Amino acid sequence: MTKKIITGGTIVTATDTYKADILIENEKIAQIAAKIIDSEAEIIDATGKYVFPGGIDPHTHLDMPFNNTVTDDDWESGTIAAAFGGTTTILDFCLTAGETKLSNAIEKWNEKSKGKAAIDYGYHLMISDLNEETEKELPLLLEKEGITSIKVFMAYAKEFQATDRTLYKAFKIGKETGAVVMVHCENGSVIDELVEQAKLAGNTAPIYHALTRPPELEGEATKRAIELAYVAGATLYVVHVTCKEAVDEIIKAREKGYDVYGETCPPYLTLDQTALEKPNFEGAKYVWSPPLRPISHQEPLWNALKAKQLQTIGSDQCSFNFNGKKQLGLNDFSKIPNGGPFIEDRFSVLYSEGVAKGRISLNDFVDMISTSAAKIFGLYPQKGTIAVGSDADIVLFDPSVKRTISAQTHHMNVDYNAFEGLEVTGEPISVLLRGEYVIKDKQFVGSLDYGKYIKRKLAKKLSDEEAVVPN
Predict the structure, then answer these.
(1) d(CA 131, CA 125)
(2) Banded pLDDT at 353 (limits 50, 70, 90)
(3) For residue 102, how many other CB atoms are within 10 A of its CB?
(4) What predicted TM-score, i.e. pTM, was given to this entire model?
(5) Which of 166, 179, 257, 344 has the fewest C-beta atoms under 10 angstroms from its C-beta?
């Protein structure tokens, strides 16, 4: 690996903004100083650019079966698109539904990602049921595989929804192992009833996806998850927070000292429920869960980010083509595959709508897009910052560029873009992963065998004697 010196740029971390040179050697940041001279190093001129740590996307669904189909972005197209967008590490959800052994699900995800990852990655392990065998297997598997997070759904009653008992058991395991328990907070059973009522009344258009999943049911489920986590003594991470009702519950819990984190996503900060009313079934492009909310919910989300009551920005990448897949629900909104394509635009949308419009600071941007996720999920300080000894995951970002987001120019394997026509300020120009270019001057130059699986460390480690996964 050729040594590299990044010079002339402005380094931005979650806490500092300053001018300095960076020496990269053996995949790591070897030195940061006012001026570095090394005749053997390749010089990277970052004049006029911000030098950010690589983005960490804590919420992706690549090559995932759902709604009787499969997402259109697999690990190849998904990780390449992520890299174009300034993301150098993703944490993808490994689904365990229907598996008698949790380890079988991890083997499936390893097969999906093998030789297809342009960037580094890890997994969250989804839990829908905990029986005697899986309860024994889970803590040992987390340690063996370096997984620090469990995902539980309170939604999707027919597919993934866990009972409150399973949710509480997951929280207890989280407490015992140090794993973060991530929860999709919506009342899936009540939503199912509302969906059936809507269809019986002949209401089948995409807008009814939102109208049958009201924000009150997200708020109720968020409060329930918070209290169950507190009783169990676990760390709770609420995924894709969309509404004031959920934000208010998170703020109240954090003010009481509860160990609760919150994530939101770019579409909830920029789009609103009226998108589902677009004619000619175009509203189906905007069907994901939880749904888009009325525009009045955007300000509480931005305020919570600024106040650090919400800590991270996930993409919730879950792409389905409009033609052929979203259209499966042409006569029944409940059959529209849930999900949207966001992995490539997460970085730019947050910078443009947040920093460029004065809603958040430059340092807070880095914290939300990278550092907080690294800390919460056991990647820090290997990733999530620019510091001596950290992986040389670096984004050279031009804050002066203006561009219009479009499906015609994105790199995701999907036939529409939810942000179509949105003009954004700022763009990743070059992206390095562990010191090697993945994107150079807006061109993909990476390799699909360079991205690697990152084992993370649990807050509370099992003893070596315990850490044996049963056959």
Answers:
(1) 16
(2) very high
(3) 23
(4) 0.96
(5) 257
Torsion, Cα of 34, 37, 42, 46 (10° steps): 20
* Cα dihedral: 326, 339, 303, 239 (round 10): 160
Cis peptide before 381, with omega less than 30 degrees from 0?
Answer: yes
Nearest to 263 by CA among 160, 201, 342, 166: 342
Give the pLDDT of residue 460: 56
Across the strands, what pairs with 312?
Answer: 263
What is the rounded distance in angstroms from the CA atom of residue 108 to the CA atom of residue 140? 18
Averaged pLDDT score across all residues of the chain: 95
| Helix, strand, coil tally for the chain in percent (to 5) | 35, 25, 45
DSSP 276-333: GG-TTTGGGGG--SSPP--GGGHHHHHHHHHTTSS-EE---B----TTTTGGGGTT-G
Query: Would you state the torsion angle of the CA atoms of residues 102, 226, 175, 129, taken in this order, to the nearest 10 degrees?
Result: -20
Any alpha helices (H) in 85-148, and if so which ranges?
A: 102-113, 132-145
The count of other CB atoms within 10 Å of the CB of residue 256 is: 10
- Cβ-Cβ contacts under 8 Å for 364 (sequence gap 6 or more): 14, 305, 306, 308, 354
- pLDDT reading at 469 higher than 70: no
Q: How confident is the model at residue 468 (pLDDT cuts 50, 70, 90)?
A: very low
d(CA 58, CA 105) in angstroms, rounded, equals: 19
Cis status of the peptide bond prior to 290, with omega within 30 of 0: yes
Residue 182 makes CB contacts below 8 A (sequence gap 6+) with: 124, 149, 150, 151, 152, 237, 238, 239
For residue 394, the cross-strand partners are 53, 432
